[in-house]
Every structure is written in C-alpha cells, then in structure tokens.
TrEMBL record:
It comes from the Bacteria. Residues 105-127 are annotated as: Disordered. It holds the Pfam family AAA_16. It comes from Candidatus Entotheonella gemina. GO terms for biological process: cyclic nucleotide biosynthetic process; phosphorelay signal transduction system; regulation of DNA-templated transcription. Keywords: ATP-binding, DNA-binding, Nucleotide-binding. InterPro entries: A/G_cyclase, AAA_16, Nucleotide_cyclase, OmpR/PhoB-type_DNA-bd, P-loop_NTPase, Sig_transdc_resp-reg_C-effctor, WH-like_DNA-bd_sf. This is OmpR/PhoB-type domain-containing protein. GO terms for molecular function: adenylate cyclase activity; ATP binding; DNA binding.
Amino acid sequence: MLYRFDDYIVDASRYELRQGEHVITIEPKVFQVLLYLLEHRGRVVSKDELLDACWAETFVSPAALTQCLTRLRKAVVSRDESRPLIKTLHRQGYRFMAEVETVSNADEQDVSEAKPAERPGPAPLPHLTEMTAALNTASDTSGSDVQSALNSERRQLTVLRCDLAYYDRLIEHLDAEDMHVVLQAYHRACLAVIERFGGHVAVSREAEVAVFFGYPQAHEDDVQRAIRAGLQMVATLRGHVALPTQVPETDFALRVGIHTGLVIVETGEGKGAQLPLVVGETPTIAASVRDLAPPDTVAISQATAALSAGYFECRLVRSQTHTEHREPLAVYEVRGENAIRTRLEVEGVRGLTPFVGREAELALLAERWEEVQDGRGQVVIVRGDAGIGKSRLVRMLKEQVTIQPHMWLECRCSAYHQNTAFYPVCELLRQLLGAPSEYAVDDTLSTIEALLQRYRLPVDEAVPLLAGLLALRVPEDRYAPLMMTPQQQRQQTLEGLLTLLLLRAAEHPVYFVVEDLQWADPSTLEFLDLFMIQVPAAAILAVLTCRPSFEPPWGQRASVVSLVLNRLTRPQMARMIVQVSRGKALPPEVTEQLMEKTDGVPLFVEESTRMLLESDQLVERDGVYEMAATLTQFEIPATLHDSLMARLDRLGTAKEIAQWCAALGRECTHEVLASITPFDEATLQQGLRQLVDADLVFQHGFLPQARYRFKHMLVRDAAYESILKRRRQGIHQQIAEVLEAQFPDTAEAEPGLVAHHYAEAGRHEQAIIYWQRAGQLAYQRSANQEAIGYLTTGLELLLSQPENAKRARQELDIQMALGAALMAAKGPAAPEIEHAYTRARELCRQIGEPPQLFPVLRGLWNCYLQQGALQTTHELAEQLLDLAQ
C-alpha cells in the first residue's frame, strides 16, 4: 500500500519514505509510528495505543514515543507551518491531519492519478486483538478485583549482569569438584559486594549473576551503586578466589554489563513465587552490554552513562547493531571513579545555575560567621528535603568568606558507610593533617608526628590512636602497644582529634561542614556530641546538613540554631526557570505548569526544565521558546525517578495507600478514601499517619473530615505512574462510580472531577456526558475560560468515537454550548465562534433540522453582524424569519 500526502509518499511494503525522487532514511521504529498514524488517520490515536501497537513485545517508557515523534516531525515537514502534519491533542493523543491518498501496490505506476480513498474507521491491528480484549476486560473489573493488593508496578530499574568471560576454558581445565569450589568462591565474593551496595540478587547460577538496583527498595543513587558494585567486583574477584595451579590467571576474568530503564515488576505475592517477574527489555539490554564488554571491565549503556555522567571516567568502547536490537547499542567502558562525589560537584563542572533566593538564610549564616570572628563558636543545622538546596547554600557562604583568613574543613556522611565507624571523621583528620588518602604510610605517619610536635602533644600516645583511625599500621619498633581498654582507646581517640580541631581554631577561624547527617554512623555522632560541648568557646562555625527525619542526639543547646530550608517562592521559581533556559523566556503556560509540578524544589525545577527543553514540545525562535505542539503532560525526569521512588519504597505497606491517594489527585478526603480503598479504618488511618510523618502529605483538619494533600506534585506523579495502566483504569472507574453513588453532591458540584476519572478509566461515553455538564456549569457561573476547556476536552474525546446519529446529537449540544462560552469570553465576532456555530449548522442538517437550528442560526447571525458581513447577516435573518413563522 502507498500513502501520499503533501509531497511525500510512504511505501508500506518497502518500508520506504520518499519526498519526490529523494528517499528519506528514517529508523524502523519511526517508520512504524508514521505508518500506524496513517492507517488510523481518521481519528485520534492515544499515546497508550501507539505504545501497544509499535512496542507490542517490549515495555518502554513514553519517552521512547516522544523521541520517535520528534524524529518523525523532523523527517516530514508540512508545507504550511500553521498546519502541522501530526497534531498533538492535550491528554488525548495524536492525529494525522494532512489529506492522504492511498494506492495499492498494483497501481503504483499510476499513483499520480490515484483518487482519495475513504478513510477507514478505527480497527485494531490483528496482533493486538487479544491485547485489546484483555484491556477491555481489565476496564470491566469489579470492585473486588480492583481492591486486591497491587502486586505489580512500573518502575525504573538498573540491572547489573555479570559472568566469567572465559567460562568454557575453566570447564576444560577443571574437573567438576574443582569447578564447584571455584564457582562457590566466585558467588560468595560477588554477593558480599552486592550486599554492601544494596543490590537485589535476581539470578545466581553457574557463571552468571544478575542484580537489580532499584527494587525492592529504591535508592536515590541506584545507578551509581550499580556501577560501583561492578567496579568493586572486578577489582576484588581474583583476591577472593583461589584458583587451582593448572588454571592460568588470565583465564579467570569477569565482565559486567549495566543498563537502566523502565520495567514492570510483578512480585508474585500469594503465588509462591520466590523471585520477581520483570517484564521489559532492560535485563536483555544489560546482557547485551555485558556480551560486548571486554574481559575484566565494567560496561554501561548510553542510558546508564547519561544518568551517571560526571561521577565516573568512561570511554566509548563500541557502537554497533546487536542482533536483538534494531538501533545501534552504544557501550561505554567505566575506567574508574572521578574525584567528584556529589551532584553539586558534577553541576559545578558543567556550570551551576545562578543562585536564586535564600537571601535570609545566607544572611543568617553570615551573621553567625561574624560571631565566630569574635571567638564565639556557632552551630547551624540546615534541614531540608533532598534537592532543596542545602549544599548549595553551604557553597555560597564558602565563596563569601574566602577573603578572610580561615580554615575550611568539610566532610560528609555516606549511605554506603552508615555502619563504618568514624567514616566522615577520618576525612576530617586527613584535612587537618593536609594528607590526602593516596599518601604513603610513612609519609602520613611523619605528618601526624609533625603536627603533634607542633602543638606539643604527646607523640608516643597520640600517633597510634590517630593512625588507627586511618587504618595505618604503626611500626612496632617505633611505638609500644597501647595499654588501654577498647573503651579508653576510643575515648582518647575522640579527645585527641577534637584537641587538634580546637588548636587549629585557635590559629584561624574554622568553617567546619558535615553533610548528610541522616547517614552518620554512631561513632561520628558521639564525636559531634563531644564537639558540641567545646564549640561555644572556639572560633568555629559548624554547619551540619541533614534531611528532616534526622533527630540530633545532643538535644537543645544555646549555641545551636536550626535552619529549615523552605521551597522557593513563585517569583524565585520563575527566575530559576529563565536561568536554566539561559535567559530565554518560555511560554507563560509552560512556566506555570513547571511551577505547579516542581513545587519550589530547586532540583525539581532544574531537572524538569532541562527535560522539557530537550523535548520536542518547545522550539527556539528569535531568542525565546515557543510551543511546537499542544503542551502534553510532563513526564518525571529520569534523573529523579530513583530519588522519588526511594521515598515511596520506605513506606512499606503505606505505599499502596499513597498510590490510591495519587489516583484521586493531588488532594483527597478521608471520607472518599475510606469508601474506595480495600483497607479497614485502622489500617487506613495508620497508613495515612505514616505518609504525614514521612513528610510526603499534609493533613488539613481532623478525622473524619480530614483532607490530605501531597507535599510535592512529582511524588504524587511517581506514586501514580508506578501503578500499571490496566489497574489504574480499574481504580479510576471505581472512583467515578463511588462519587456518583455515594457522593452525589460532589458529582453534581464537580462534574469535571467525575469526567476526569471516567476518561482515565477509558469510559469515554460517561466522560463526555460529564465534560459537557462541567462546561455548562462553568458557563452558568461565568467561568467562561474553564467552560471552554471542559467543552473542548469533551469534544475532542467525542470526535474519537465512531460516527453515528447519537454522536452527531451530542456534538451539536457541545458545539452550541461552546459557541455561547466563546461569545462570552472573546466577544461575538471571534472566528472560533463562527467555526463552532457553522459546524453546529452542518450537524443540524445531518440530523434533519432539529429545534436547535434556530439558536444556532441566531448565534451565526450575531457573529456575522459583529463582523460586518451584512449580506450573510441578511440571509440568516431571512432563514430565522422563516423558522419563526
């Protein structure tokens, strides 16, 4: 079959796109999307339908479709810029807008004489029949099915797959018993590393190990954890496995492949399953990356490399088409970790976004620093959620105090070392010594001795203590063993380190920073408790950062101030968005939606704005950004997936309650929740208390009239998007039906809410009815813009339905209501009013001149009168007179 539009020809049999005599090369998946839109050009094709049709055998994120459409729009460009070939309909999908001629392959030579063919009605592809039936069945799920536990969910997963590169050679050299011993040691060594970095072993058999990072517990740095685990496994494997003498050491090599992507995870709870079922191409791609990795290396995919950029030194190994993937697979070898450890340091290399807001907080820190100049020590605890700007605030003060003599000491706690005693304190000691970690043992010992002698401290006793803190072996011929109990040795170590810090502060004021106290080990907290007693009389400004959940063990002290970082204000968010876009203004509606989604969290603002700028929804013209298509719903940036899911995974069973809340929207009431969820009242209340205590939702009012609101919209989106599409549809249907049956006052007062839930449930007939009611109610309240929005949404949904008499009558009612709302909002001469009433007149003729014809003609008459089209106005007046008589 050939399709012809504008000056393009699409040959479905040859998988070829031509413009005149020129063949345009596009990727197979892009061609598949184009072909599907052409085959269903008579209607709106939803995003989910396109994903099901073009990625039937695999699960991919909506971002894959967005990228395909971006490439498609670059390949086929309309001759009329005001009339795009592919139109994006907000929250509905896509529609091919150009006039298309179709020709069978037998008539290919006569394509120039082809006549326009009738547009086929919507019909599913043959291979989608069963899937469509299953989806319809899911939409018909009963309340009991919807209320069953949500055992499957959608989430981002980083998969590590490793094996022995020369496994076949090992089998040749070793008998079965020796091979069994080697494999046991190999698996023990791998599992020890995996456990340290929080991975979940999915497969561990013979030479292969597969590990999930991001399930069942997500961490905000799962990608980095996976890569660090791979590097550690490669570095330590040979040291943990004793090979028989007949095996060359070069034959024992590990290769690791890592890929990150969206999957569906089914835990199989209640079915006796031991391991989760993972559906999606992520594990397969990870295996492909591993197969392309050189021996004794860690290789990562392009997606994983993008999410870990800056933290590791990587080089492109190869980019080739693999047998299981149509698109080239880029593979990067990880050469090692960079010195950069934090997101702020990574951004510092790329170029930090200019600092926005926080003037009051920065002024408070500056005042405390002035107090320190006079010898009055201060402690400031900076609290805030991840991404709120704690580290950036510390950095800004550091830049301000550089002109004054001082000593800067900075260390941070680590999620990987919460059980490693004195982990950040060791870094503090290295900075006090001026001895980097790569110093030789003798050099470090000499530095310790020199520092102790400088301050006239007992060398023989203090050197073994401080050397032990850095895990250095002290020569027995130089220092006698310490005759102390372990508790005495610990106390002396703490006091010795604190003494060095106080002596340094006596020379110059010290700016002492400890980041991420929520991950501090108990020994570090004990050191800080001792430090708090001494700090008021020392020239030290200690700035300690932590998440809101951290409770300091030292209680209230006069010298300690708690500083809570709140969200940015709307003007500050607007400034930051412009700065991320490098001074180029975004359309007001885009800026508004960005502010609504990101809730004033700087990290959310920055990453969401960047993602939008990299999408196909905006185009730069004359130094400003304009919308290239109707603004669709924002997706969660891949860089934030793990962080958001980590917050939800920590909730345990309350996570499911968060998902029900998310389905209701950003806000919900306790009364409605109790009516739709499968939980008893005690379980529901306990789960909601967990959400409030975790600072994920706010509670307004008291039970049973309490209302709940997600603190961050992106957290709500993460909870909602983790629900599978079919389950989500069932939940929305149940919500709509409960609102109708048990909350009729709400359904009557907020028909748009019921319409939304029916639309998300795939119940379009009911949704259209409620969109129309919502539009009429808004018009009665003089909320004309809202009325236009509701009616337009209902109309777009209606036009995706099969053409028949019922649809024509419904469209007539909506077009008339839309015309009235447009007239009130834009004045009677607006061209949109002419379009609405003209379409309504056509529908009246199709139906057979119903009673609505008179008000339709009157609306047209009024429009043309205001436009000054007097001849047309006169003709319409004659028709109105005939109808009146």
